Amino acid sequence: MRTPDPIEIGGHRVGPGERPFVIAEVSGNHNGSLDRALEIVDAIAGTGAQAVKFQTYRADTITIDADGPAFRIRDDHGLWGGRNLYQLYEQAHTPWEWHDPLFARAREHGLVPFSSPFDPTAIELLESLDAPAYKVASAELVDLPLIRAMAATGKPMVISTGMATLAEIDAAVAAAREGGATQIVLLACTASYPADPVDANLQTIPALREAFGVPIGLSDHTPGIGVPVAAVALGAVAIEKHVTLQRADGGVDSDFSLEPAELASLVTETDVARRAMGPARFGPRESERDTLALRRSLWVVADVAAGEQVTADNVRSIRPAGGLHTDTIGTVLGRTFTRDVARGTPLTWDLI
Predict the structure, then answer these.
(1) Quick one: which of 21, 184, 258, 350 has the most CB atoms within 10 Å?
(2) Where in the chain are the domains?
(3) What residues does the AFP-like domain cover (predicted)?
(4) pLDDT, tens digit (0-9, with 9 covering 90-100), for 161-213
(5) Which helix (DSSP H) or strand (DSSP E) does residue 90 occupy?
(6) CB neighbours of 38 closer than 8 A, spacing ≥ 6?
(7) Which pLDDT score is estimated for 12?
(8) Tell me, which fold does domain 17-58+93-276 have in CATH?
(9) Do domains 17-58+93-276 and 286-351 have the same CATH topology?
(10) Domain 286-351 adopts which CATH fold?
């Protein structure tokens, strides 16, 4: 299958051969403070990430204030156990009046600001801010009317695929294309918070690329940066990670978020992984030229006179290159030197 064509998000090419497009997700790490949210954006700007992402919903646009079993998170959930959905989203949401200053601050830094809308009114807000792209959250992948509404804007779409079957991903991609989307990135994702690396199943990345022919990235909720680096080695072209100022500050997403210095390492190391993934190659590279000259070969290691016998005491395999191949030692031992030879001379056929 041919390599997917890159797409463009906010002036950045996203696709094979390009620097990984790193999306820093603020989510609920603002902990209810606009000043903190702005500080997170400022910190992201110093890491080399290209984009900052928000989530656009209110508690009453994403759920209802109900307390039945279906509306509560199981008690033993590590982060959000025992809470009902309305309470959680009321705490975690980014107030709509914050979006304008947050988008403006991101743009001041040269970051690409965009968001995940969770209902049509959120799309209207983001369109008023000239959002350059839209993100479909994993749980919203099955909301095909919402996907069509995002696609109708004509903006690039980034679609997370956590929990989704191949058929559900196919339906979401079809809905996006029906709605008018021509630039789509799919993100492999494990929608658990935090996620165990063993559940990352990164071979999904080439499988998605083969199935859909679009650029593939990773939305990652594992601790650290190991999984994203491995994902880029398997062809991921975009990485989304949650970011906070300090995990010790707490908050709904802090446990699986990176601190700014860690995000900077992710930006550096994923690009290293991308640059390392060249084609299979054998034989010396130009960069190995100096080391190639240090290969072992046969050298005269003691002063010898003409007629003297070649022995293990006066000819040895040592570094550097320049003499006969090391495997000729059995052939040359016992022969005689044709002339006087000084110690430190590469052994050649004309000397014996």
Answers:
(1) 21
(2) 17-58+93-276, 286-351
(3) 297-352
(4) 999 999 999 999 999 999 999 999 999 999 998 999 999 999 999 999 999 99
(5) helix 85-92
(6) 101, 102, 105
(7) 98
(8) TIM Barrel (3.20.20)
(9) no
(10) Type Iii Antifreeze Protein Isoform Hplc 12 (3.90.1210)
